[in-house]
Structures are given as C-alpha cells and as structure tokens.
Amino acid sequence: MIVGQQKPFDEIWGMVKGFKKVLVYGCNTCVAISHAGGGKEAEILASMIRMKATQEGVDMLVDNAAIERHCEPEFFEPLMEKVRTYDLVLSTACGVGVNFLSDRIGDIPVYPGVNTSFYGAVPKAGFFVELCGGCGNCILHLTGGICPVVRCSKSLMNGPCGGTDKGKCEVSKEIDCAWYLIVERMKKLGKLEELFSIQPPRNWATGTHGGPRRLVYEHIMELEEEKKAGK
Amino acid sequence: MKSGSNLEKVIASGKPAVTAELGPPMSADPHEVVEKAHKLKGFCDAANITDCQTAVVRISSIAAAYIALREGLEPVMQMTCRDRNRIAMQADLLGAAALGLKNCLCIAGDHQKFSAAGKLKGHPGAKNVYDVDTTQLVGIMKKMRDESLQEGGDKIDVPPKFFIGASWTPMGDPMDFRPYNLKKKVDAGADFIQTQGIYDVELFKSQMEKARNLGLHERTAILGGIIVPRSAMMLKYMDSSVAGVTVPKALIDRMNKAKEAAGDDKKKMRELQEAEGLKITVELIHQILEIPGVKGVHIQAIEWESAMEGIVKAAGLYPRPQV
Fold first, then answer.
1. How many CB atoms lie within 10 A of CB A192?
2. For labelling alongside B134, which of A81, A111, A224, B30 has CA 20 to 30 A away?
3. Residue A158 and residue B173: Cβ atoms within 8 Å?
4. How far apart are CA B309 and CA B43, in angstroms?
5. pLDDT tens-place string over residues B43-54
6. Residues 6 or more apart whose Cβ sits within 8 Å of residue B227
7. A161 contacts in chain B (CB < 8 Å)
C-alpha cells in the first residue's frame, strides 16, 4: 500500500491560512491505514485548523469529508459538485489523489495535507517499512524476494558495498543491509550461486526516469465503451 | 599491455606493486595537490586520487589526477557510482583518457549522509545516482576499452585505454559472500583490486585462500590495503566504526603502550604513537606481501603523505622499479 505521513501542522497552516472556505478531504484507503489521511484524520485536522483560525482571529469555514478512494473518478464524482463550492481543498489523500483531483476540479486549488512516503507494509501496528520502489522492472525472483532497488541505500545490483556492518547499512544502524538479507535468504533457499552471475546495467526507463508512466489495456477500454453505448 | 600505465607495467614485471593515496582539497587551489604529489612521487608506482571521499565536495578526481600527472606522479583516478549516471561516467572516461590518465578505480562511494560530519555541513540532502554499480562500471570500462563500444552500443573511434581497478572489502559482512563479490568484479574485467584496510592479517589470509580457490589471484592483481595508524584512538575508532575493518586487540595494546610511555608529554605521545604506527605499517606490509596471491600493497597515509618515504624504505620497497 501507499504509506503517507501528515505534514507538520505549521506547514499546513501556512498553506491554508489565506483561504475562507476550506474542505479537508480524506481518503479511506491506503493513507487511512497509515493513520495519515483517512476520514478520521481529516476530521481531526479540520478541527485543528478551526482552532488555529480562532486563535489567530482568522475568519474561516473549515469542513471535512472523506471518500473511499481518490484514485478512481466514480468515488468522488458524486461529491464533486459540493467540493467545487470551497475555495481550497486540502487533500489528505496520497499524491496520486491530489494530482487526480487537480486534473478534474477546475479552478479550485488542491493542496497536499500529507507527504506521500513510500510503498510499504505494516510489520506491526504503528510501524511501516518501505518494500517496493515501483521501478517497473521487477527482479525479486533473482534476489530471494528482497528488493535491492529500494531496500539497498545505493540500489546496488551485484552485491553489498563496503559499508555493511554487522548486517546493517552504513546509512543507519536501524536499517538492515538489503544485500546481507539477500545473501542469507538465498543461502536458505539453496540458491546462493544464482547471485554469482553479473547483473548488467539496468533499464531505468521503466521507472520514474522514462517520463510519466501509463498503462493501457485496450480491451478493457473497448468493453467500457461498448457498455456505455448500450451494445 | 592494456593501458601501458606504470602500475600495469610494475604488476606485469612480477615485483610487488605499491600504490598510495592522495586526497584533493576542498578548494580550487591546486598547490595542495602539487605538494602532496611531490611527497609521494618516487615512493609508489601510482597514487589513488580520491573522488569526493565521504561525499565531501573537493577538487574532482580527474582534475587532481591531471595535476598529479603534470607533476610526474602517476595517478589512479577514482570514480564513484554515487555522483554520475552512465552518460557522465563515460564522458568523463573519454575526457580523462584524452588528458592522459591511464588507471581508474571503480567504487560505490560513501553515502552522501557521511558528508555532514564533525564541523562539515556537507550535502546530506543530495540525490545520489547509482545508475550503475561498481561491477557494472568495471564492465562498461572494459567494453569501452576492448570492444570500442559505449555501454549503449555506439562505436568509439578512439577508445579510452584504462587499467581497470575495483575495490574489495574482504572482511565485510556477509563475509562468506565477499570472495564471490570479488569474483563478479574480476569477471566484469577488473585488472587490479585494492582492498579495504587490513589489520587482521589472519582473517585476510583466510579470505585470500577462498579467493585463490576461485582462481581469482591469477586473473587480477590483488593489492592489500593498509591504512597507516597514527594513534591508539584512530585504531580504536577504525575497529568500532569503520565497516569491514577489525583491529586485533594486540595492535591497539601496542599503540596504547607507546602512548603511555610518553607520560604526560603530549608532543612525545604523538611522536611515539606515530613511530609505533610506522613500525606496525611495515610489519603489515611484510605479512600481507607474504600471502600467496597478493601482488602488492595499497598504502593509505591519510593526510600524512610525508610518511610514505620512510615506510617504503623501511619495508625494503625502495627504489621503486623502473619499468
């Protein structure tokens, strides 16, 4: 899932303080699980902004709302008319949601209330870790299911650097060395020798380095068109 | 000859090779490079010119290497994978070769986080590159030299002819993978290897045995790394804080003894520790050169270039071979 973290309140206040009618707009999918931007967090954030506005003597109407998902039009279309009555939407969805709404809402600004952090998992309550970089060219079958692109601080493809210390990364003692994990995992799988062949330079164009990415399934698009046309 | 560099010729002669290290300054003043080059000239076969070590901005390795070359010191330019993508790397390799540089060491590079240390602000928020890793960079350099091709496949009219080096941390975690890590660099085309600093000679011996069992000592020239110790504090720091370096207690004890012999005299404390450090260095050189498969030593007298003369003379490695 996409893990997000609410922006520092001072930064948020700096964004919103000049507006008269603000909607704090939550998303109840990924960012709700990371306690950053679901309906509950949007409600709390809205009341914090209201309190701050009162303290500062700023005249401001702040409402909150939430929908299930900010990344598909069908979820927010029903609310769109109401959303357009505000002069600022403070979205607590991930960056995808902020972009998607900005592309559709018209001349109302949509500001981010959340820093979209990473694609990760929840090993235990309150603890989130990055496990995928969305590079578009998965090699997990070669590395024991442990990603060197995002879990190695240097995205090394052929083994550890000289900075591994007691299984930890040179960047922090809190971070496991991905290559230490990969080697140990491949040993367990009896496949260590698979790491002995050289991985050639990668094609990074499948990631964020090839320009914004798109994925098109024409058969699904055609089917939708047909449905709409009543065929 | 692949490159015709002095280092390549010395290694080919079968005599033990000696490389040193020269760290460029955080300034546009070339004189520091010139001075250091003069301290090292004649006491090594080539000197590594570090590439923004610990991610601190300094005169670039290529520019400082060219200054050293002008002063008559053969440089080993270094290239980290941290700061350049494959386009910049290959452009710099063409340029470096055009300037007459013949040796290049490929390294991953310290993470930019290290640049903010002590009094330095550094650039911990910099974006790192790592388009390719060390093994891949070695392969790119070899492809350019031996096939006259860029990584992408375009032809090179006059290819850069480098004697290609790579680093190796034999005693780093996961230790049983390290010989294979080395093998990948050799398979990719590393002509010579410089190791992380060695103090635990016995442990290095056992890693070298594994490297020999893979036949790597016959396919590349392994130069054992020695970081010249200057004080007990430095040895303790390296033991506890430098990845892949372990310092046997006996060596730390020796340094402590040298320090204690000075009583409260600070100047004497430094002198006695430095003298003991030079003795330890010479012993390490002999012990490392005795290990089968080792073709030389890479001596790093960090910010103490003037020590090189005494070290190579005491180790019986002077004069350097004329090849």
1. 18
2. B30
3. no
4. 6
5. 999 999 999 999
6. B197, B238, B245, B300, B302
7. 108, 134, 169
Q: Which pLDDT score, from 0 to 100, does residue A49 have?
A: 98
State which residues form the domain around B175: 6-230+293-314
Checking if the pLDDT of B59 tops 80, the result is yes
Domains contained in chain A, number: 2
The reply to whether A227 falls in a domain is: no
Whether A62 maps to a domain, the answer reads yes
In chain B, which residues have their Cβ closer than 8 Å to the Cβ of A202? 132
Q: Is B38 on the interface with A (CB under 8 A)?
A: no
Q: Could you list the residue range(s) of the whole structural domain that residue A155 is in?
A: 135-203
Residue A214 lies in a domain: no
What number of CA atoms fall less than 13 Å from residue B212's CA on the CB side? 11
How close is the nearest chain B Cα to the Cα of A98, in Å?
A: 24
Contacts of A157 in chain B (CB under 8 A): 133, 135-136
Residue of B177, B178, B207 to mutate, testing the A interface (most A Cβ within 10 Å of its Cβ): B177
The reported pTM is 0.95
Q: State how many domains chain B has.
A: 1
Q: How far B22 CA sits from the closest chain A CA (Å)? A: 20
Task: Give residue-wise pLDDT tens across range B81-100.
Answer: 999 999 999 999 999 999 99
Task: Write the DSSP string, A86-136.
Answer: SSEEEE-S-HHHHHHHHHHH-SS-EEESEEEEEEEEEEETTEEEEEE---S
Whether the per-residue pLDDT at A16 is higher than 80: the answer is: yes
Q: What is the pLDDT of residues B178-233, one digit of tens each?
A: 999 999 999 999 999 999 999 999 999 999 999 999 999 999 999 999 999 999 99
Q: How far apart are CA A85 and CA A39, in angstroms?
A: 20
Q: Based on the fold, state whether residues A73 and A178 are members of the same structural domain.
A: no
Most B CBs within 10 Å, among A147, A164, A194, to test the B interface: A164
pLDDT at A230: 84
B218 interfaces chain A, CB cutoff of 8 Å: no
Q: Are B229 and B281 in contact (CB under 8 A)?
A: yes
What does the pLDDT read at residue A76? Answer: 84
Q: What is the mean pLDDT of residues A57-86?
A: 95
Per the CB < 8 Å rule, is A159 touching B172?
A: no
With CB atoms and an 8 Å threshold, state whether B110 touches A183: no
Residue B136's CATH number: 3.20.20.220
| A12 and A53 part of one domain | yes
Is B181 close to A170, i.e. CB distance below 8 A?
Answer: no
Instruction: Look at residue A89 and tell me if it is in a domain.
Output: yes
